[in-house]
Amino acid sequence: MVSMPEPVFLLDRLRVCYGDYQALQDVSMAIDDRRITAFIGPSGCGKSTLLRSFNRMNDLIPGARVAGSLTYRGTDIYGADVDPIEVRRRIGMVFQKPNVFGTSVYDNVTYGPRVNRMKVDLDDLVEECLVRAALWDEVKDNLRRNALALSGGQQQRLVIARCIAVRPDVILMDEPCASLDPIATTRIEDLMRTLAEDYTIVIVTHNMQQAARVSDRTAFFTVEVDDAGVRHGRLIEYGATRQMFSAPADPRTEDYISGRFG
Questions:
Q1: Residue 6: pLDDT band by 50, 70, 90 thresholds?
Q2: Which tens digits make up the pLDDT trace of 121-141?
Q3: Which architecture does CATH list for 9-257?
Q4: Of 95, 123, 109, whose CA–CA distance to 167 is shortest?
Q5: Nearest alpha-carbon partner for 104 in 161, 177, 187
Q6: Tens digit of pLDDT for each residue in 181-209?
Q7: How many other CB atoms sit within 10 Å of the CB of residue 181?
Q8: How far apart are CA 245 and CA 257, in angstroms?
Q9: Residue 119 contacts by C-beta under 8 Å, 6 or more apart in sequence?
Q10: Which of 1-15, 68-82, 227-241 has the highest mean pLDDT?
Q11: Is 24:61 a contact under the CB 8 Å cutoff?
């Protein structure tokens, strides 16, 4: 019998609170290795909150706390002996708006390796990462150019190059194409599919077509209102993207995907 590989992330009744407010309730799921997993759902359903839990970005929000279980390759990410800085090196993040530094393209890519004192040839690393981010041909003659002079789509690809320069295992993407035009969006989507050959990718998106195009598995979240009138995010359905978009198991998923809700 062939044993199934251990999931990269395993969540069991995960809950995320901000103070007394429970933003996300009882999420149980497994994230597969070297696959693209998409989180979809209406605003306020906890997609980004959950994404930030994977690399402990919620630690930076006053009053935020996580309950339940979240393991990364078998290790409790929130264990007392776990260094959150090392977590964020292994689990990189790309945000909605390209957060390039106001320095050169070269310095953007090498920032992480320098901070982490990685023993690598920086020139080779810059070329490798920019090639992998499908940006090398556009910037190779202007590596000392200020990164802020690049287009929005180029900046986002530069951020991805900077992310992979520290050799992460996972790339989290929080609506990475929300501020981009359709052509730049297509380039980022193509890049995601290529990167998924070597990285586990988790993406939050409001674009149903994007989730259907790029992801292998999709999780649909919604907002529920309790008896006290308080809104909470909840996972409704999680499964293979093709199945989810062709024959969802839950009518709430079908309503959202078809545009009847959200």
A1: confident
A2: 999 999 999 999 999 999 999
A3: 3-Layer(aba) Sandwich (3.40)
A4: 109
A5: 161
A6: 999 999 999 999 999 999 999 999 999 99
A7: 11
A8: 7
A9: none
A10: 68-82
A11: no
pLDDT of residue 228: 81
Tell me, what's the pLDDT at 258?
84
Q: Phi first, then psi: give them for residue 21, nearest 5 degrees.
A: -90, 125
Which of 32, 71, 54, 92 minimizes the C-alpha distance to 216?
32
Q: Could you tell me which of 104, 66, 57, 78 has the C-alpha nearest to residue 202?
A: 57
**23: Cα separation from own chain's centroid:** 19
- DSSP letter string, the chain: -PPPPPPSEEEEEEEEEETTEEEEEEEEEEE-TT-EEEEE-STTSSHHHHHHHHTTGGGGSTTEEEEEEEEETTEETT-TT--HHHHHHHEEEE-SS----SSBHHHHHHHHHHHTT--S-HHHHHHHHHHHTT-HHHHTT-TTSBGGGS-HHHHHHHHHHHHHTT--SEEEEESTTTTS-HHHHHHHHHHHHHHTTTSEEEEE-S-HHHHHHH-SEEEEEEEEE-TTS-EEEEEEEEEEHHHHHHS-SSHHHHHHHTTS--
